[in-house]
Write a structure and sequence with these properties.
Isoleucyl-tRNA Synthetase, Domain 1, elongated, Helix Hairpins, alpha/beta, four-stranded mixed β-sheet, RNA-binding, 908 residues
RNA sequence: GCGCGGUUAGCUCAAUCGGCCAGAGCGCCUGCCUUACAAGCAGGAGGCUUCGGGUUCGAGUCCCGGACCGCGCACCA
């Protein structure tokens, strides 16, 4: 067979080929008509402007592990992919591109601009999808959706109308967060608060009837004073009690404003008197409405001051205005004090400008009823979080949520389906465009200019992608989905809103489980970000190349998608953020190479299949199959509980420790007829066990390292065509093959224990080799003294194993209570003594040193255990089996110690 | 201010229900190009589990309190 088997695994060529094979085979396609049990995941749709980062890599790897695992269990799986139109973000990207060409969106006008965005989307929008494919994500790509698709847009309109009709959407004039750069309203959770070192300015407001007296107010945003319409004090505040109702003259603008009393005011803070600016502060807004104060807006939409700010400031930027205003107040001796003050300032999560609280007319979703239903779904156990602690985080947000501002003053997005009649001012909300006013019949209708928050359309994702509002077979079969896998960062933005919309519009929660995985951090524990330059590009790690990381350049020769995926999965402990650095990712690359080489070894030994009837399975054959099935059991349980890294660790140990370090080494002499009595029947047996084990192993690993396992499986299918395992390899591809179930009858704790004991003996011999500077394969002779005839019988049966792996010149002599032969080193392993014949090499000092060290350790352990046993409370209160076990342990340790002591005496 | 994580080997992390000697990877030291793999093999060193109390026969693990690091929310005139 002329197959090239390079000694170093090169992922690049293989992954590309395997990827093509999968896509051409249509193996990821989901078909509800196939029936069976459904298992569904909808992808958290990445921004269409996005590029794959490590967070995506982890998120999608975990989803892919779940999907591939369930697919291999024969379950009817659907992984729904797609992208999000990301209103503000995408609009910003296209506007930046236009700016480079010296154009602006206003030059183009709305229709032309939206056309430009679509063009941009067609050209660049598939980048992240291709990157996900490169990562190996086994989504049903034939079903790819985009939140601005025709179908999803229909879903958005119907959702809006339905909620409006149910009174859950309303329009109103309220204070919202305004980004003066993006020129749009933002939802509360789209504002990032950052702590800033600012000032607390104390400003004097004189009384109208006695300008020499007045009150001092404290503020961090003095420029808003231009819009003040009152000063508030606490009604209980003795200092101000008798001044309530008195009029003040607001400096600079010279407006008459009253002193009002409101419980809200904190007497401890500042001077206890608060300037009230209803149009520019959420608390003041609420106070203003309580006291029916005027709402005077002093800002323009772009963050400059407007005519209400007065002639001097009109048109000035808000921050320049602050400076100028402070100067003027100083001149007028109205600035009484300036204290440094730490306070938090809201920033736009898209462009990072300082947002302004701003009164404007917007559309809102009434959250209370929706949130209550969502809370109930979790309380009833219909929506569960993993790890469990996120439940509280999620519920506390739902409990305190305020109405959601969903209108955005941008052009890219789902335009609000509301039309206002220019004649009678009636507002009609409808799924189809409205051409005549249903109230007055006028045809003078104007559609609302605003678009909806992107998260509004993403909240429908679990069902809009399946064809809702049509009742499709997909929706019937795959909804609700099984699990949502995401980062904690969008629990509010997205997870909560999907639950609310699913319950309201589908009357069914959109998913049963929510798995919140780690956030990826850099090696110093900081989130990866562009501005810090501490991000690692997953594509560079996969395909190779160079990039800047934390200020230095590093080069990677391409660890492959498998290497990256394995690293991420094994590093990511549930519920724990994960620090990633380029060097840590070598782990997965090394593992994949190890797996490849183990497979390569198997293939080389399958080149000539022995035609003999296989001999009976030997001890080591039974052992590796026992370990294989133990591993199947462990991985199955771990994945069911979302313990991905435990599954990966079990696989790592099985492949590297059990299979490579021990079984492959043990199989070598059995492959070579003649040597050590190996027969063609033995050879055949080993070939069957190797192929069987490798087949199990690639199945188990496939969800984590899909490419290399698919490749190995394909080769194994050819190499093992004449072996029994071929009967289990009839699927067209590993991705569609079913995973072997754990066969409990093959799991043998006794065999695993015996092997552990053999490993101890072998390690003892190796240790002596090291100590004596003997070559690893220098033939040696050993004798083994055991405690009883049963142990002798057990070891006798395995003497070939020991001989093989310890490189002995002949089988060990095994006897019960054998006296120590002369001229040998001795190692005490439990109740076994291993005598290594060394002829002239025995070194009494080295012997003494080794035995002394062991004596010390044993004495320490015995001391501890005896102290426990001599404690009457322990003996009387601890469970009997624990006490019995402890006694047994002491007896064993003492027997071992005696042997060590005897050997020490013999040295004298 | 409230809440949630975390603190274990030089580094990054494990440790199931409280019970054998607290493990692994990387790094370090020794020796090996051993016919799958130097991205490897073999052997080894390395621990007052953040601190102080408590519960318990027994605590890395449970409870109370403190320190430090990180995250979220609220307040922030």
């Amino acid at each position: 067979m002329a197959v090239e088997l390079p000694a170093q695994y090169d992922p690049k060529a293989i992954e590309e080929r395997v990827s093509r094979f999968w896509l051409e085979g249509g193996f990821f396609h989901a078909d509800p008509a196939r029936g069976g049990k459904p298992y569904t995941i909808v992808i958290p749709p990445p921004n269409v402007t996005g590029a794959l980062h490590m967070g995506h890599a982890l998120d999608n790897t975990l989803q892919d592990v779940l999907i591939r695992w369930h697919r291999m269990l024969g379950i009817n799986t659907l992984w729904m992919p797609g992208t999000d139109h990301a209103g503000i973000a995408t609009q910003n990207v296209v506007e930046r591109k236009l700016a480079e060409e010296g154009r602006s969106r206003d030059d183009l006008g709305r229709d032309k601009f939206v056309e430009e965005v679509w063009k941009w989307k067609e050209q660049y929008g598939s980048r992240i999808i291709n990157q996900l494919k490169r990562l190996g994500a086994s989504c049903d790509w034939e079903r790819e959706r985009f939140t601005m698709d025709e179908g999803l847009s229909r879903a958005v309109r119907l959702a809006f109308c339905t909620l409006y009709k149910r009174g859950l959407i309303y329009k109103g004039n309220y204070i919202i967060n305004w980004c003066p750069r993006c020129l749009t309203a933002l939802a509360d959770d789209e504002v990032d608060h950052e702590s800033h070192e600012g000032h607390l300015w104390h400003i004097f407001y004189p009384y109208e009837d006695d300008p020499s007296e007045g009150v001092v107010v404290a503020t961090t945003r003095p420029e808003t004073m231009l819009g003040d319409t009152a000063v508030a004090v606490n009604p209980k505040d003795e200092r101000y009690k008798d001044r309530i109702g008195r009029m003040l003259i607001l400096p600079i603008v010279e407006r008459r404003i009253p002193i009002i009393a409101d419980e809200f005011v904190d007497m401890e803070f500042g001077t206890g008197a608060v300037k009230v600016t209803p149009a520019h502060d959420p608390n003041d807004f609420a106070m203003g409405r309580r006291h029916k104060l005027a709402e005077i807006c002093v800002f323009n939409e772009n963050g400059t001051m407007n005519e209400n700010a007065g002639g001097a400031y009109n048109g000035m930027d808000r921050f320049e205005c602050r400076e100028a205003l402070i100067e003027e107040l100083k001149e007028k001796k109205l600035l009484r004090k300036v204290d440094p003050h730490q306070h938090s300032v809201g920033h736009c999560y898209r462009c990072h400008s300082v947002v302004e609280p701003y009164i404007s007319e917007q559309w809102f979703v009434k959250m209370r009823p929706l949130a209550d239903a969502a809370i109930k779904a979790t309380e009833d156990g219909r929506v569960k979080f993993h790890p469990e602690r996120w439940t509280k985080f999620y519920l506390s947000w739902l409990e305190n949520v305020r109405d959601w501002c969903i209108s955005r003053q941008i052009w890219w997005g789902h335009r609000i389906p509301a039309w206002e009649c220019q004649d009678c001012a009636h507002i009609e909300v409808a799924t189809e465009d409205v051409t005549a006013c249903p109230k007055c019949g006028s045809t003078m209708l104007v559609q609302d200019e605003d678009v909806l928050d992107t998260w509004f359309s993403s909240s429908l994702w679990p069902f809009s992608t399946m064809g809702w509002p049509d009742r499709t077979p997909e929706l019937d079969f795959y909804y609700p989905t099984s699990v949502l896998v995401t980062d904690r960062g969008i629990i509010f933005f997205w997870v909560a809103r999907m639950v609310m919309m699913g319950l309201e519009l589908m009357e069914k929660e959109p998913f049963h489980d929510v798995y919140i995985h780690a956030t990826i951090l850099d090696e110093l524990g900081r989130k990866m970000s562009k501005s810090l330059g501490n991000g690692i590009d997953p594509l560079v790690m996969i395909e190779g190349g160079e990039q800047m990381y934390m200020g230095r350049k590093f080069e990677c020769d391409g660890y492959g998608a498998d290497g990256l995926r394995f690293s991420l999965v094994i590093l990511t402990k549930e519920g724990q953020d994960v620090r990633v650095s380029p060097s840590k990712l070598e782990l997965g690359r090394n593992f994949v190479n190890k797996l490849w080489n183990a497979s390569r070894f198997v293939f080389m030994n399958l080149e000539e299949i022995s035609q003999a009837e296989p001999s009976a399975p030997s001890f080591e054959d039974a052992w590796i199959l026992s370990r294989a099935h133990s591993t199947i059991r462990a991985v199955t349980n771990n994945i069911a509980e979302y313990l991905f890294n435990d599954a990966a660790t079990a696989l790592y140990d099985f492949v590297w420790r059990d299979f490579c370090d021990w079984y492959l080494e043990l199989s070598k002499p059995r492959m070579n007829a003649g040597e050590g009595g190996a027969t063609p029947a033995d050879r055949r047996r080993v070939q069957e066990t190797l192929s069987e084990t490798l087949n199990i192993l690639v199945h188990l690993l496939h969800p984590v390292t899909p490419f290399v396992t698919e490749h190995i499986w394909g080769l194994l299918k050819e190499f093992a065509a004449e072996l029994p395992v071929a009967g289990k390899m009839t699927a067209p591809a590993l991705v569609r093959s079913s995973c072997p179930a754990a066969d409990e009858s093959l799991i043998d704790a006794g065999i695993e224990r015996d092997m552990a004991s053999i490993q101890d003996i072998v390690r003892a011999v190796r240790s002596v080799r090291r100590e004596k500077n003997l070559r690893d394969r220098e033939p040696l002779r050993i004798a083994i003294s055991v405690a009883n005839p049963e142990d002798k019988a057990r070891l006798d049966a395995k003497s070939a194993v020991i001989r093989n792996i310890a490189f002995l010149s002949e089988a060990a002599e095994i006897a019960v209570n054998m006296p120590k032969p002369t001229r040998c080193a001795v190692c005490v392993v439990g109740d076994i003594q291993v005598f290594v014949h060394l002829e002239g090499l025995v070194d009494a000092e080295a012997e003494r040193a080794r035995l002394d060290k062991q004596r010390e350790s044993l004495e320490g352990r015995i001391g501890k255990a005896k102290a426990k046993l001599s404690n009457e409370n322990f003996v009387s209160k601890a469970p009997e089996d624990v006490v019995a076990k402890e006694r047994e342990r002491v007896a064993e340790l003492e027997a071992e110690l005696q042997k060590v002591m005897q050997n020490l005496r013999d040295l004298d």
